[in-house]
């Protein structure tokens, strides 16, 4: 008879997510995951199949906690510039608050795993596309209402804003300087004009 799982799966994935954010996929060993989660190797393999399975679960949880709220925020219907500023400046605030400089798991996955792992690449592509679509809808509504000029295509602007958002995360990992990151966010906002 198979044993039932006797641990909090979400708590284990949260702990693994923190470990992967600290040291990346390659830098995190199974032993590191055992120590971070408090689970035995057998429990990790039984629940997630492999280190990669646990990494994908951590990436999914990260997307749920950090990317989905951005999409939901952009769907609120407030003025476009205000919403977009809130997303970009909110990212700056989050970066600066993170004194331990934990990497954005999405950026880390893009640089470390996307070229090697189709499951990771597909998740990242879905995340980027959902953010682009949310930005696109905001921009189209604002251009149609005259809130934003229509000189630039909404699809190009949406893609640029996703690139800017991820660029803020990369530069913030290097040096979380609020003034410099906020200035970059303002330049991105100026592209809407």
Overall description:
The protein has nine helices and no strands. By secondary structure, it is mainly α. The protein has one domain: Tetracycline Repressor, domain 2, CATH 1.10.357. α1 packs across α4 and α5 packs parallel to α8. The longest helix has 28 residues.
Query: In percent, how helical is the residue content?
Result: over 70%
- Specify the biggest β-sheet: none
The secondary-structure class comes to mainly alpha
In percent, how much strand structure appears in the residues?
under 5%
Report the order of strands and helices.
Answer: HHHHHHHHH
Shape call: elongated
Spatial gap, N to C terminus: 65 Å
Mean pLDDT: 93
Helical segment count: 9
What is the CATH first-level class name?
Answer: Mainly Alpha
For this entry, what is the oligomeric state of its chains? single chain
The Rg value, from CA coordinates, equals 19 Å
Secondary structure elements and pairings:
Layout: H1 9-23, H2 30-37, H3 41-48, H4 51-74, H5 80-97, H6 105-112, H7 118-145, H8 154-174, H9 178-190
Keywords:
193 residues, single chain, 74% helix, mainly alpha
Give a brief outline of the structure.
The protein contains 9 helices and no strands. The chain is mostly helical and 193 residues long. The model has no long low-confidence stretch (mean pLDDT 93).
């Amino acid at each position: 008879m198979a044993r039932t799982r006797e641990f909090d799966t979400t708590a284990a994935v949260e702990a693994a997510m923190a470990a992967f954010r600290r040291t990346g996929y390659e830098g995190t060993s199974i032993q590191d995951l055992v120590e971070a989660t408090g689970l035995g190797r057998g429990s990790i393999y039984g629940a997630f199949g492999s280190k990669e399975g646990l990494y994908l679960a951590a990436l999914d949880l990260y997307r749920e906690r950090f990317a989905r709220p951005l999409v939901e925020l952009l769907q609120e219907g407030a003025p476009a510039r205000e919403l977009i500023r809130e997303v970009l400046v909110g990212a700056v605030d989050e970066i600066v608050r993170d004194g331990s400089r934990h990497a954005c798991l999405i950026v880390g996955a893009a640089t470390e795993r996307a070229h090697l792992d189709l499951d990771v690449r597909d998740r990242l592509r879905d995340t980027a596309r959902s953010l682009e679509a949310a930005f696109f809808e905001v921009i189209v509504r604002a251009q149609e209402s005259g809130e934003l000029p229509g000189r630039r295509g909404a699809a190009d602007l949406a893609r640029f804003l996703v690139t800017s958002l991820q660029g803020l995360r990369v530069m913030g990992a290097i040096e979380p300087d609020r003034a410099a990151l906020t200035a970059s966010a303002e330049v991105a906002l100026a592209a809407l004009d």
